[in-house]
């Protein structure tokens, strides 16, 4: 149990540092910004206390907001995906989630892609909607959500594949 807590703590800090020191400075064509810090929420163990998990999602988003000076948009998006994550776990993994036996290293690629894509696109849509906060700019919101979402999905899948290979 302490190994899991230590692993999650290290993942939390490392993802925030990588996000604020490296990925916040990447901006391709004005629309593509990778947000890999949400890997913490995506890969968090499924069988833990939900209240603690939503609080950790808030803390994660708040830390990125503090370093990015973004006024709470990351915190709001993180709390939302942390709260709705069980629905997408059940949708993506079905009975594996019902028995609380999800191991992301052993899940097939299609289910993992569905799960990652759903949470990442919802996170990005909420974040960009709050950041722009103008309904007349809906095309810009959708464009940023789509392009940043695709790039974030690719990076998150590559990171999980690279780090899961080392453990096998």
Instruction: Estimate the strand proportion.
Output: under 5%
Q: Overall pLDDT, averaged?
A: 87
Helix percent band: over 70%
End-to-end Cα distance, whole Å, is: 20 Å
In oligomeric terms, what are we looking at? single chain
The CATH top-level class label:
Mainly Alpha
Rg for CA atoms: 15 Å
Poorly predicted runs of 5 or more residues? none
Number of helices: 7
Number of strands: 0
Task: Name the overall outline.
Answer: globular
Transmembrane segments: 12-32, 52-68, 113-133, 145-163
Keywords: Membrane, Transmembrane, Transmembrane helix
Protein name: Rod shape-determining protein MreD
What is this structure's SSE topology?
Layout: H1 2-21, H2 39-43, H3 50-68, H4 73-93, H5 95-98, H6 109-132, H7 138-167
Keywords: Membrane, Transmembrane, Transmembrane helix
Transmembrane segments: 12-32, 52-68, 113-133, 145-163
Organism: Gelidibacter sediminis
Protein architecture, described:
This protein is mainly α and 168 residues long. The protein has one domain (2-167): Arp2/3 complex 21 kDa subunit ARPC3. Helix content is 73%, strand content 0%. It is built from seven helices and no strands. The chain has helices at residues 2-21, 39-43, 50-68, 73-93, 95-98, 109-132, 138-167. The protein is globular, with a radius of gyration of 15 Å. 27% of the residues are buried. This is Rod shape-determining protein MreD. The chain crosses the membrane at residues 12-32, 52-68, 113-133, 145-163. Keywords: Membrane, Transmembrane, Transmembrane helix.
